[in-house]
Design goal:
The complex is a heterotrimer. By secondary structure, chain B is an alpha+beta fold. Chain B is 22% helix and 32% strand. Chain B is built from six helices and 13 strands. The two termini of chain B are 30 Å apart. Helix content of chain C is 14%, strand content 35%. Chain C has helices at residues 34-42, 81-85; strands at 3-6, 10-13, 17-22, 50-57, 62-69, 75-79. In chain C, the strands form two sheets. Chain C has a four-stranded antiparallel beta sheet with strand order 3-4-5-6. Chain C has a two-stranded antiparallel ribbon with strand order 1-2. The two termini of chain C are 26 Å apart. In chain C, 19% of the residues are buried. The chains are: A alpha/beta, B alpha+beta, C alpha+beta.
């Protein structure tokens, strides 16, 4: 190490920056306890502390910050959903992502690459046309594109008419993009901690106490914490944590597997997805191809990888990009997706007073990080559910008013 | 004069493939079937399109009774099949479901008898014909278990898969029914799958056959086998 | 590939099966209120541990029950629905798919 660098490191003039709370004991009570220090949890803390003046916050995580599904998702950002409620919500999230590096003073490496979803059937074209209409009406850039345009957008895509499922058309979503998922969590977490929120990692919630139908305290492996308000943001564990508060949810948890190849020079700009062959792909800024598909076929709380999913993903992606036949897979992993019946999240009030839900994030959680943080913070601070997340209340299932995003979600993410 | 499937009301979904690959057609029982191909391999395992072969099926609590009153023998257990004296292959797909395949000479009368009984019955038995819903292939030759090992996870070798055994499983990722059958002295299988997958499965099987010097064969190949005996 | 033992067809690759979800007791549709019905239709226990589930062997459309650990992915036992619902033979078991 050059001496100058060593001198800099040891200088008191440039103290090491501690991004997060340095380990300290838990207080006996906090105004707000956030369960889960993933992207959503730390974003809620960030908006509470920065925009609502609420700083007496504990963010608890049984592991480390951004170590759950925030680390495991494939960082697809898009807003080309089907329902007005869904499009309005994700559109604002995408807009927030665009300015997020400035907002946080932390580079989240957002890249507006565009996202292309492929149609291999007439039925898919009809649904794309529908989505494009809804999107444009809501101010989101989506359009139905033909094979010629697809060839221009993604020159190395296999557009052969002899493949098993030839590509007929595409839904081009110019607003789509990606960002560095860890950076999003780190940026929000350090912003919240700078403003006084406490991040307590390795702090596992073991029980939730209610009193007269109202949240009273949270028990952890490090002791009991009283709280005025608690919110759960524990994607992959939503049913288990909610059960501690006596709440049953319309969620079924499935693993979602993905894999990544060795790095290559830049070959693929847009994010490409095919709901029909159940695969999606993007090339990261490091050059790796990240390849994912649909959730596993049966429920499981286990992030094991399976050979059959590797085969399925490989077979599917070779249909689209035959040049990947020589690529080597570096890693395969899984996250647990909390699937809801309508493929929309569950946000807002719960049957327990002052206990809020940020749950049901299935395969669409990362892209909603900024808007979820902002709206959940507003709900906690004001006690009023913002209009934009009102449709996603748990209550909707009792009214049989689902927000059906199944068609715009499957294997697109 | 040779027969043309285009002139027949009932034809296999593969008739264009057969035509393009030098098939010689013949009329059997008012059906146009492939007799042989220009360049038919003799030694390796053979794959024959039997999609027009008479067949029927039935299901329901009373299916076993209807069958017993119509044919001389029925399989005792699910996933077993028997050969009647009329050369009809009767497979038991579950406790209450049966599938009947005619003999490869297209001369079975039991299929028609069961269909008549089905039409007349007032019992709890339902028709499941599988003539239009499924394609039907024969795969024959000593190597056929190895051919299918490339497409299917079940061990179909003689020591593991008995004569007349039935497997309902996934073959080349589509649902299929596999029935062990001896075509004269040659071991092999009846293969049934959803008709929507006919061309796909046919192509997959031909691809698997390449390694074993096998290929498509017509109905003539069954006759020469019998002569050899 | 993981194997699942089908009571009709024997051990098969788990990819040959369709997952049918948790076994739930159906409330009486004539007597229950709409929130009970909503919970029956949409909600799940989603437990981490041993659960009883519906599974279907796709190639034969054969439905059966499995006791499975949703954490270790270990299949403890598979069996015919009649074993669980035998006492209810007079009425339809609980409205779940049965064959």
């Amino acid at each position: 190490m050059p001496a100058a660098l060593l001198k800099y490191a040891l200088s008191r003039k440039y103290p090491a920056r501690h991004a997060f709370t340095r380990r300290r004991d838990l207080k006996k009570r906090y105004d707000v306890v956030i369960i889960g220090a993933g992207g959503h949890g730390v974003a809620i803390a960030y908006y509470l502390s920065k925009y609502h003046g609420i700083k007496d916050i504990a963010i608890l995580d049984k592991g480390y910050v951004g170590g759950g599904n925030t680390a495991r998702n494939t960082a697809v950002i898009r807003s080309n959903y089907l329902t007005e409620e869904g499009v309005r919500f994700y559109r604002e999230s995408v807009e927030m992502f665009q300015g997020l590096s400035n907002e946080l003073g932390f580079n989240i490496m957002f890249e507006n690459r565009g996202q292309l979803t492929l149609a291999h059937s007439d039925a898919a074209i009809r649904s794309f046309r529908w989505r494009a209409e809804v999107n444009q009406h809501m101010g989101v850039r989506s359009e139905l594109v033909d094979r010629k345009t697809i060839a221009e957008l993604v020159p190395n895509l296999n557009l052969s008419e002899d493949s098993r499922f030839p590509i007929l058309a595409g839904l081009w979503h110019a607003d789509g993009g990606t960002a560095r998922h860890d950076a999003v969590a780190w940026g929000y977490a350090s912003g919240a901690c700078e403003r006084g929120a406490e991040l307590h990692q390795c702090t596992e919630v073991t029980g939730i106490e209610t009193k007269c139908g109202r949240i009273a305290a949270v028990n952890t492996n490090r002791g009991r914490i009283e709280c005025g308000i608690a919110v759960q943001a524990v994607a992959g564990m939503s049913s288990i944590v909610a059960d501690m508060a006596g709440i049953r949810l319309p969620i079924h948890s499935f693993p979602l597997q993905a894999m990544v190849t060795q790095p290559y020079k830049p070959l693929l700009g847009p994010l490409v997805s095919s709901p029909h062959v159940h695969v999606y792909i993007q090339q990261t800024s490091r050059g790796e191809f990240v390849i994912g598909g649909g959730s596993d076929p049966y429920a499981l709380y286990n992030t094991r990888s399976t050979l059959e999913m590797k085969e399925t993903l490989s077979a599917a992606i070779l249909e689209l990009f035959p040049f990947l036949g020589q690529a080597r897979v570096l890693r395969q992993w899984a996250g647990i997706t909390d699937m809801t019946p309508d493929y929309s999240p569950i946000m807002g009030e719960s049957p327990v007073e002052h206990y809020y839900l940020d749950a049901g994030w299935g395969t669409w959680g990362f892209k909603a990080t900024p808007i979820s943080g902002k709206t959940m913070a507003e709900l906690i601070a004001t006690g009023r559910t913002p209009d934009i997340i009102k449709p996603f209340e748990l209550e909707r299932f009792y009214r049989f008013q689902q927000i059906n995003e199944a068609g715009a979600t499957a294997a697109s993410h | 004069m040779s027969a043309y499937p285009q002139n027949s009301l009932r034809r296999s979904q593969l008739y264009r493939w057969h035509h393009e690959h030098g098939a010689h057609f013949a009329n059997i029982a008012n059906l146009v079937v492939v007799n042989n191909y220009d360049s038919e391999r003799g030694d390796g395992p053979g794959l024959c399109d039997l999609s027009l072969l008479p067949r029927t099926g039935l299901k329901g609590p009373d299916a076993i009774r209807l069958l017993q009153s119509t044919v001389d023998d029925t399989p005792m257990e699910p996933n077993q099949s028997i050969l009647t004296s009329d050369d009809t292959r009767i497979a038991r797909l579950s406790l209450e479901e049966f599938l009947l395949l005619g003999s490869v000479d297209f001369e079975t009368s039991e299929i028609a008898m069961v269909d008549q009984a089905l039409a007349a019955t007032s019992g709890m038995t339902y028709s499941l014909p599988r003539a239009d819903s499924h394609c039907l292939f024969a795969l024959k030759g000593r190597d056929s278990p190895e051919v299918l090992a490339k497409l299917c996870a079940i061990d179909l070798r003689p020591g593991w898969f008995a004569t007349g055994a039935v497997a309902q499983t996934s073959m080349a990722r589509v649902n299929a029914i596999i029935i062990q059958h001896h075509f004269a002295a040659e071991p092999g299988f009846f293969l049934l799958a959803d008709s929507a997958s006919t061309e796909y499965l046919w192509t997959c099987l031909l691809d698997a056959l390449q390694e074993f010097d096998g290929g498509a064969v017509g109905l003539d190949s069954f006759r020469t086998m019998q002569h050899k005996e | 590939m993981k194997l699942l033992h089908c009571p009709l067809n024997g051990p098969r690759n788990i990819s040959e099966f369709t997952y049918g979800g948790e076994v739930h007791a159906m409330p009486d549709p004539d007597a229950c209120d709409s929130s009970e019905w909503a919970e029956y239709v949409f909600f799940d226990d989603n437990r981490a541990g041993v659960v009883t589930e519906w599974w279907c062997h796709t190639a034969t459309s054969f439905w059966f029950l499995a006791d499975r650990n949703t954490v270790s992915d270990e299949i403890m036992r598979t069996y015919l629905p009649a074993e669980r619902f035998s006492g209810l033979a007079a009425a339809p078991p609980d409205g779940e798919p049965s064959s």
